[in-house]
Design brief:
single chain, rod-shaped
Length: about 450
């Protein structure tokens, strides 16, 4: 004992050893003051402290443990136990007696040790801890309590400060995701930590991620959390996002359509709207689930039928933008026919929104005459629409050529628009391309 106490970490230099059983018995025979050497010999394969651990576990709740020896006993127990929290804990009576003994000795490690034990019990401690004291307590908490339960149940200012330190510094051993995640924002707010930091910390327990399923995700993950799971990518958030999309794909199409159309309706569940809103522009939503794809098709048809133009960057707009163009051809041809058959009237707003779709997938030349008369002709007095025609001059020239003389009335409207003062160079060039020359008003 004397050699180890003197040499500390260098005790192996002396090449001394003792019998394991005798060593365990030495500690048990009221030689508790020698327990301090365990930190130097605990990793030596010659010694096994299972017998001592069992002895300590019976000693702790006994009347032999008091304010004079509790920290020495607990420090040794921490070194030889492989469990957090420790199996044996102080009784309520012991906690109170030891706390009363050290409550005024705030600069001692004994005070900080019993403070950690009291905080685990949510006992309010009036003193404000220094940063150093918070660090010390944070490194002891796992021995005395369940980190996850403390995050959820803490209503104690000092404990919250300790939990904040633990979370930011990747401490904490025991936690159940299915208990903490439903309380994510409550935890985040009370320990004053960022959403990103908490998500990074919770990834430590990613081996539990399969507890989040398609069936229960709406109960475990708050609809407001997806804003942060899409930005903080780790194994846990990846599983959350992927599972959310799988669950989303099973939602009734009409239910989903109504949520997206009226996301802020009072007393309405808009959980799946929030999933779509946050994940629609991520890789997790590629390809679009079938129900979302079908809703996007409905939105395109609504543009044609009633002129419902999605606002820029809205969920509606993003869904349409992400439609698989390999699957939309038939829909765009149907929209073309709606206009060509006079089932709906084109407007400048409809044309500006649908022009690219119609030009690329509408097979406009197959109904060139009707396209010119029912789609092009009504929008020729709008400069923005003329700009779209001129931006794709070659395509529309061919379309006019296909129609021949039947396009003359529409060309005359374009000529009138040009001669009414339109000075856009591209529009003028387009006019020349289809046989229109701007009048020279200075000509006598």
């Amino acid at each position: 004992m004397d050699y180890v106490q003197a040499a500390k970490e260098d005790y192996k230099t002396f090449k001394l050893s003792t019998d394991n059983k005798k060593l365990n018995n030495h500690f048990k025979e009221n030689k508790l003051e020698d327990l301090a050497i365990i930190k130097y010999i605990k990793d030596n394969i010659k010694y096994n402290f299972e017998e001592l651990k069992q002895y300590i576990e019976t000693f702790i709740p006994s009347d032999k443990l008091d304010a004079t020896n509790f920290k020495l006993i607990l420090d040794a127990y921490k070194l030889i136990s492989d469990k957090k929290p420790l199996h044996a804990q102080l009784t309520p009576n012991q906690r109170n007696q030891i706390w009363n003994h050290f409550a005024g000795q705030v600069d001692t490690n004994e005070y900080l040790e019993i403070a950690a034990i009291q905080l685990v019990q949510n006992v309010n401690i009036g003193k404000d801890f220094t940063d150093k004291q918070i660090e010390y307590i944070a490194k002891q908490i796992d021995y005395y309590g369940n980190y996850g339960d403390l995050l959820v149940n803490s209503n104690n200012q000092n404990l919250n400060k300790v939990l904040k330190y633990m979370t930011e510094n990747k401490l904490g051993c025991v936690l159940s995701l299915d208990k903490v995640l439903p309380q994510f924002f409550n935890v985040k707010n009370k320990i004053n930590i960022t959403e990103v930091a908490l998500l990074i910390q919770l990834d430590k327990w990613k081996d539990q991620k399969d507890i989040i399923t398609q069936e229960n995700i709406h109960n475990i993950i708050s609809k407001d959390l997806y804003r942060f799971t899409k930005e903080t990518i780790n194994d846990l958030t990846k599983h959350i996002n992927e599972t959310a999309i799988k669950a989303l794909s099973l939602v009734d199409e009409n239910t989903l359509y109504n949520q997206i159309n009226q996301p802020n309706q009072p007393n309405t569940n808009n959980y799946w709207y929030k999933v779509v809103e946050n994940l629609i522009d991520t890789d997790f939503c590629k390809p679009l689930p079938e129900n979302i794809f079908n809703i996007g098709i409905r939105y395109l048809k609504e543009v044609a039928s009633n002129g419902t133009i999605p606002k820029e960057n809205s969920v509606r707009a993003k869904i349409i933008e992400r439609l698989d163009k390999r699957k939309t051809g038939a829909t765009i041809e149907e929209i073309r026919n709606v206009f060509c058959n006079s089932q709906s009237t084109i407007t400048t707003q409809k044309f500006q929104y649908l022009e690219n779709w119609l030009r690329q997938q509408g097979k406009l030349k197959s109904r060139a005459s009707e396209v010119v008369h029912h789609i092009i002709d009504p929008i020729t007095n709008d400069n923005a629409c003329l700009k779209l025609l001129s931006d794709n001059a070659g395509f529309y020239k061919d379309l006019f050529d296909e129609v021949g003389d039947e396009a003359t009335p529409t060309k005359q409207k374009i000529e009138k628009a040009i001669n009414s003062g339109n000075s856009d160079e591209k529009i003028l060039e387009f006019g020349k391309l289809i046989g229109i020359t701007k009048e020279n008003k200075d000509k006598q």
